[in-house]
Amino acid sequence: MHYMIRSVLAAMLAMGPAVAFAAPAEPSEQTLKAEEGGPISPEDIVGLKDMREIAMSPDGQSILYTVTDQIATAGSQRQSIWLVPTDGRRPAKLLAGAKGISTSPQWGPHGQRIAFLSDRANPLVEDENTEFRFTTKVEGARAGKGEAKGTTQAWMMFADGGEAVPLTAMRTSVTKLAFAPDGRRLAFLAADPETPEEQADAEAGRDEVVYGEPGHFTRLWILDLETGDARRVSPDGLNISELAWSPDGSHIAVSTADNTDINTFFYGTGVALLDPQTGKLGGTLIAHSRGPISWSPDGSKLLSSVVGADNPIGSAVRVHDLASGKTLNLGDQYPGLFTHFTWAPDSRSILATTFEATRSKVVQIKLDGHVNSLAQLDGEAHDLALDASSQRIAVALSSPQRPSDIWTLTPSGETTAITRINPQVADWTIGDVREVSWTSTVDGRTIYGVLVTPPGYDGKAALPTVVQIHGGPEWAWWSGWLGSWHEWAQMLATHGYAVLLPNIRGSDGQGTEFARAVGSDWGGADYQDMMDGIDTLVADGTSDPERLGIGGWSYGGFMSAWSVTQTDRFKAAVIGAAPVDMAVLARTTDIPDFSAAYFGEAQEHLADLDAVSSVRLLDKVETPVLLLHGKADTRVPPDMSLQYYTGLTRLNKPVELVYYPGEGHSIQQRAHQIDVQERTLDFFETHLKP
């Protein structure tokens, strides 16, 4: 589904109808470990680290970045901050986060200080009598002893190391922060704490929830770093999700919404200017914004990505000129997806990463709308930074051979990796990753995808093949690293499988029109695009037509559940967090605007929604099915899988259902991530190999 986390198949041995809570599956037998040249195991995968968030120092000499100890895990309990010289001549060093979570590093304006967020033990919280130079002195803002244990607060340290000093002791977690240009103030976001009345209600068991009422608003605060005084500056009744200081410090651009629900966060925010002295908020300058806000270095313009007011599928680039009041629409017809942005120092153009077909690029977007390619990247870019002289660009990038590292680009387009966050992967024997394409029989479009084949595969034998469908539909597979709990092509390839990862219509990478091409047509032309890709691999001898499997998560789960109602060619299907009853989904998901973007309002399109609901066609299923679902999923409620399971069980068809307690739409806990992968491997080993 739209903006659903990148997702996975997970499988277990299908021994007939059964439902169970997730218990660890028995590991597959291996004679060699991955580092000894053997196949990649789930334990190998969860041992990988993930690199996120890069921030270049004002002088361009150093880069801050964060590392999480569990790849593709939003809720990892160990995140750390590292520093590496931009030239890569010295190894990276750990700055913060020997344990716990340290994240969101921000350089001070002069490059001497670093602010960051951390959940480490905070003296300002542990002991209310402790006095520090930096503290929030606002009545009701500073937590007393024990009140904010387990929260994330703002900290500061010098760039050359030393002890970190706590800056805040809010009752709730600080979620974002930014230095003022003068370095004397720090703006940050924190949600309102429970009121005394709410605390009393909770203690008395009065825990009823009135659905649809706003939760606790996230407010903008400003901390004076010299006096330690903090004050709330954002108005009542507004939720703030992004902030960016103007270069002269006179204003803060903020993303605002009038509600706190995730649907409004995705589809209903706007960019406005706030006066940090008075708290006065101006009118919306950029509507339907999504993601960070960026000021041009000269302070004349604001940059943000947006979703369309009439159709939120896809995203676009918007630049608002403060002097003229006009908003420039940039790159709307560009045949790719803009992913990360930074202004060029002269304020006349924007540097961006894009995703096109199956790879990333670095491009220059001119304010007249022209887009110039600067560098082709072999993989998926996660972040982008630029030094002040514009002589060096840094990207967070995965490649087919390794998970994300920091790579620098010279003006001539040469790339160099300056970190090695997962050195163990260099000893693994991994599958071959290559971009493939074919022609759709629907309308002659070129469809791109990624094919991963076993190490050393010579093309002489037809292989058991799994087609994995990505989430979304608006998302995509990339010619980069494909190994995590929900990106398991490398694991399967090292066990002898070909894995096809198709970017069928509805995907990112071929422009907004392509991404919108599945409106009211899920399971139609997109399904045929996928089948055409499989037919291409069968025709060229890569895939054994008698040993085909399918799987996916979210929209990938939808397509897997749908496909086995349309054909008996698949011998195994793993269906993760799948929307199988689209009318029910439209009224139970936490982002109802998502369904409306593709199908229109549910009441007016019930027949269309029913027509693409695989749960209506279970009598057609002849394929063994495994259903996997987080028990706390609010994006695709877990009863979706129960419907599919119960329907197949009543028809005496082979099906199993595994729930993961405490998990939402993505799987976060280490044991569950291992289990997902082990079941995936065991399921396909059982059904696709002789």
UniProtKB/TrEMBL annotation:
<dbReference type="InterPro" id="IPR029058">
    <property type="entry name" value="AB_hydrolase_fold"/>
</dbReference>
<feature type="signal peptide">
    <location>
        <begin position="1"/>
        <end position="22"/>
    </location>
</feature>
<keyword id="KW-0378">Hydrolase</keyword>
<feature type="domain" description="Peptidase S9 prolyl oligopeptidase catalytic">
    <location>
        <begin position="489"/>
        <end position="689"/>
    </location>
</feature>
<dbReference type="Pfam" id="PF00326">
    <property type="entry name" value="Peptidase_S9"/>
</dbReference>
<dbReference type="InterPro" id="IPR001375">
    <property type="entry name" value="Peptidase_S9_cat"/>
</dbReference>
<protein>
    <submittedName>
        <fullName>S9 family peptidase</fullName>
    </submittedName>
</protein>
<dbReference type="InterPro" id="IPR011042">
    <property type="entry name" value="6-blade_b-propeller_TolB-like"/>
</dbReference>
<keyword id="KW-0732">Signal</keyword>
<dbReference type="InterPro" id="IPR015943">
    <property type="entry name" value="WD40/YVTN_repeat-like_dom_sf"/>
</dbReference>
